[in-house]
Amino acid sequence: MCPTGSGVHGESARRSTTLRSAFEVMDVDRDGKISPDDLRTFYKTDFSLAVGGTASEDDELIGSMISVADSNKDGFVEYEEFEKVVGSRSVSVMEDVFRVMDRDGDGKVGHQDLKTYLSWAGLQANDEDVNAMIKLGGGDGNGGGVTLEGLCKILCI
User: How far apart, in Å, are the Cα atoms of 77 and each of 17, 27, 53, 141?
Assistant: First the structure.
């Protein structure tokens, strides 16, 4: 469950949970670290923000992204490295994740957006499950979708 609370400690806990959720979304193969292949998959799916350019330009950009965060130089970004680099940008990272999931660009992650993403991520969810998640995130469960804040609530479970 997402930590709740008020004040600095509660905000810090929410930011940490949101950051962990963003890391887990980008760790496509769920091995506890972000690899160049994870980033390629994340950016090249049907949800793509499309890195753009040629394959070699994309590889160079992905390599640069890994290099910036990979402080132990093992070729992967572990959570602690991700946290150090992204830290204060956690809201920005979740906004990027939100844009990837919001396929139609309407500012909400709707039923089909969430169902498609869950399927892509290898998570089985029927229509009732998806509606329940949307309701949990503050949507009506009838296709109304959830905002960025609502998506954070869903991913924090």
Answer: 18, 9, 24, 36
Whole-prediction pTM: 0.50
Residue 85 has what pLDDT? 76
Mean pLDDT of 11-38: 81
Instruction: State phi, psi for 78 to the nearest 5 degrees.
Output: -80, 165
Pick the last residue of a domain from 61, 89, 117: 89
In this predicted model, what pLDDT tens digit does every residue of 83-113 receive, in sequence order?
887 765 555 667 777 887 887 888 898 888 8
Residues 79, 77: Cα–Cα separation, whole Å = 7
Provide the domain count of the chain. 2
Distance CA 50, CA 151 (A): 21
Ranges of beta strands (E only) in the chain are: 33-34, 77-78
Same domain, 121 and 62: no
Please state the φ and ψ torsions of residue 77, each to the nearest 5 degrees.
-115, 110
> What whole-number distance in Å separates Cα of residue 17 and Cα of residue 86?
13
